[in-house]
Each structure stands twice: as structure tokens, then as C-alpha cells.
Amino acid sequence: MTDLETTERATSDRGTNNRDIVLKARDLRKYYPIKGGVLQRQVGEVKAVDGVSFDLYKGETLGIVGESGCGKSTLGRVLMRLEEPTDGTVEFDGVQMYEQSGSAMRKMRRDIQIVFQDPYTSLNPRRTVGEIVGEPFNIHPDVVPKKGRRKAVQELLELVGLNPEHINRYPHQFSGGQRQRIGIARGIALNPKVLICDEPVSALDVSVQAQVVNLMEKLQRELGLAYIFIAHDLSVVRHISDRVGVMYLGRLVEIGDEDEIYSRPTHPYTQALLSAVPVPDPTLRGKRDQITLSGDVPSPANPPDGCHFHTRCWKVQDVCRTDTPELEVHQDGDGGHLSRCHFAEVRQVIETQDVSGRGKDSLFAGQGERDNSDAVAAGAAGDGDVQSGPDTRAPSGG
Ligand SMILES: Nc1ncnc2c1ncn2[C@@H]1O[C@H](COP(=O)(O)OP(=O)(O)OP(=O)(O)O)[C@@H](O)[C@H]1O
Ligand SMILES: [Mg+2]
After folding, report:
1. 203 Cβ below 6 A of ligand 1
2. Does pLDDT of 15 surpass 60?
3. Are 66 and 232 in contact (CB under 8 A)?
4. Are 233 and 314 in contact (CB under 8 A)?
5. What domains does the chain contain, in order, with CATH numbers?
6. What sequence ranges are listed for the domain ABC transporter (predicted)?
7. What Å distances lie between residue 387 and 168, 220, 379, 395, CA to CA?
8. Does residue 168 carry a pLDDT above 90?
9. Nearest CA to ligand 1 atom 4
10. Mutual orientation of helices 176-188 and 149-159 as an angle, nearest 10°?
11. Positive or negative: CA dihedral 341, 57, 24, 8
12. Which of 30, 31, 32, 273 for a ligand 1 pocket mutation test, highest count of atoms within 8 Å of Cβ?
């Protein structure tokens, strides 16, 4: 049985089939050529994404986690056709994305947007916030008539908790958290159905992370967006996600509801990742099941045969070295979920009961929706735009 069939079977098994699927990825692959020698011939390939299949439901958040280099960003780019895949399909709202061209593709692009990791480099420093957030309206001029664009941008700024009067400011006049709000405002400008968030809070301070995550949840409730939330921080992903997919060397190794992944993981890699999450409650330290992995992540240019994880797995047997396990349903003690392991079995790694009086949501509890660094920035900039140095001008040159 192929991965696709097992995915389909698993989703229908669990009665989720009647939920609306907005995006279907099937066996997506992205291989980058490695060139070498004087003639720059292709000498190999980097298998950045190596056969990924999943469904995304309307209005849900699917978290994608995994170590650096496992292919998360590449997957994000392929899902919204910033790059063409080597193989595989993406179906968006019942339409095959990679069969579209011209205006049909442009129309589809409206509905699937991205927010990038680094709020410092993803915003053009020579454009005002108004120009940055309003850019999607220039690309899709029929969405908002020219006369109404300034107002539309101001409404977006307001929606993400920024002062609409700051529409003429430049990115360097904002804090990191505020810049990410600008990126989010641009991402939601066209009222997309899916927002791919590639490590949207990784570059931010923990307290600011919380504000941005809370903002994203608020926007999801108000706009009915589905998120693909890429991150390497398991606690942030847990907080925001309905379902979580774990990636290792270009493949999904486990995917399921948030509590299935965090409380009843069946893949050894997920178990190892969870065992490395810092435990905030000191009374739990030492009680946790510690798993130390040996070795480094192998290169995606030369992934191990069979199960990609076998070189670091403590359960490895001969079959793991030769046969690639399918992503299929394994029992987890409370039903089952998809996992890619010949010897999948549930192992609770972290105490997930609320023993300390702190719910899982407490991580971000009590954080205001609004970025309070606004006040700091406003103070520094002054309401009358009295700024020190050349900051009120656009950076020149280049
Ligand atoms: N344009 C490219 N050309 C060649 N190789 C690439 C390209 N983009 C990514 N890769 C390789 O593909 C693999 C996956 O990269 P990717 O950026 O998707 O990982 P990631 O999971 O997002 O990592 P991180 O957590 O560090 O952002 C890496 O080995 C990377 O070097
Ligand atoms: Mg990345």
C-alpha cells in the first residue's frame, strides 16, 4: 500500500473525511542538483523533500517540526509554488496547482500566502509600511480599487495591532515583533485561505513570540484561515497546532493530532525530539524519560537506505537498514495515528498531565493581543516623529 493510500485510509478511519480539505499534498519531492568538477556536471542531488503527503483542513493549524535542514522551508516553498517540485502534486480547493498557468495560477496565488522567518530581511528597507502591506493589491489590482487601498492598508495595520498612522514609516522604525506583524498584515491582505508561516516567531524574543502567536490565533478565529506553521520549537508548535507533522531528512515520520504527537508519540525520532524539550517545571526535571541520540543528522545528499532514521535509532534491526517503512497507522494506546517506523510503539516522554497547575496554554497566557513594544517604539520615535539621526528618512543608496 502506498503512502497516499494509507494517508487516505487513516483520515477516513478516523472519521475526519467529512471535514473540508483545503490543500492536499501527495508524494511531494524536491531534489536539488549538486554540480561539481570543471564542467559543472551534476554529480548528485540533495533530497530536500523526499515524498511528503498530507491533508490540510479548512481553518486548522498544521504544525511542521524537525531539525534544521530537514526540508521544512523547501516544503513550504513547493506548497505555494515558489519553486517547482521534482515530483508530486498539490491540490488546492479541488484544483491541481501544478497544472495551472497564467491567470488561473495568479488567482490561486491569492489564496495561499506566506510569512517568512526573518522579519529583518523579509521586508524591503526602502519601502514604507504602506507600500509593503499594499503590495499584494498592486499585483492583484481587482481586489481593492486604487482609491480604497490606503484605507485597506490602514485597516490591515489596525487588525494586526499596529498604529494605522504609522503607514508612512519604514521597517527600521519598528521593533522585531512589529515587523513580523507587518509581514503578517501583508500575508493576509488578499484574504487567503491558507497562510504558510515559515518559522514566523523564531527570530523574536520569547515574550514577543507569545504576542505574535496570540495575534495569529486571533486572526485565524476572525478570518477562518488555515495555517501551516513551520518551526523547530516544539512548545510553540504545540501551543498553536491542531495537528503536528514531524519531519526527518525530507520525510514526514509521524503526523497526528497535537495530543497524539506530544502525549503518545510512536516514532523514536519524535520521542527523542520531545525528550530534548526543556521542562519549565523543576519538579518534573529528572522524572522525564531522557533519550540521547547518537551521531549527527546524515546529509540529505546521501540519506541512509531503508529508514532514514536507522543510523541514530536505538531500536534498529536489519529490516530498518534495507526497507523503508510506510507512513501508516500504529496503535498508540488510545486509537492510533500515522507513523513511519517498523517498530512503532507508544512511549510517553514528557509528563503531559497538568501537575503544576499550569495548563498547556499557560505558556502564552496573559499576553496581550497588542504588541506592547509599540509603546516603546512610539516613545523612541515620538508622536511628532522627532527622531534622532537620519531615521525618519528612507535609507538611501543601492
Ligand atoms: N536552493 C537550494 N539549492 C540546493 N540545496 C538547497 C536549496 N534550498 C535548500 N537546500 C538544501 O535542502 C535541505 C533542506 O533545506 P531547508 O531550508 O528546506 O531546511 P529547513 O528544515 O527549513 O531548515 P532550517 O530549520 O534551518 O530553516 C538542506 O540540506 C539545504 O541545504
Ligand atoms: Mg527553514
Report:
1. no
2. no
3. yes
4. no
5. 3-381 (3.40.50.300)
6. 23-274
7. 14, 36, 10, 14
8. yes
9. 32
10. 130
11. positive
12. 32
Distance, CA of 191 to CA of 8 (rounded, Å) = 29
pLDDT in tens, 356-375: 333 334 344 434 444 444 44
Residue 142 in grid coordinates: 481587482
User: Across residues 27-32, what is the average pLDDT?
Assistant: 97
Question: Is residue 228 a contact partner of residue 197, using CB atoms and an 8 Å limit?
Answer: yes
> Mutual orientation of helices 206-223 and 176-188 as an angle, nearest 10°?
20
Q: What is the pLDDT of residue 297?
A: 86
For CA atoms 336, 88, 58, 228, the dihedral sign is: positive
Q: Give the DSSP H/E element, type plus range, for residue 213.
A: helix 206-223
Q: Quick one: how far is CA 217 from the chain centroid? A: 14
Closest ligand 1 atom to residue 70 Cα is: 21
Do you know the residue count of the chain? 398
For the purposes of burial, counting CB atoms within 10 Å of the CB of 222, is it exposed (0-12), middle (13-18) or buried (19 or more)? exposed
Helix 129-139 × helix 176-188 angle, to 10°: 20
Residue 301 Cα: closest atom of ligand 1: 29
Question: Which cell numbers in the block locate residue 158?
Answer: 489596525
What integer pLDDT is reported at residue 360 of this predicted model? 39
* Owner of C-alpha cell 528597507: 125
Ligand 1 atom closest to the CA of 230, numbered from 1: 22
C-alpha cell at 196: 504558510
485510509: which residue's cell? Answer: 9
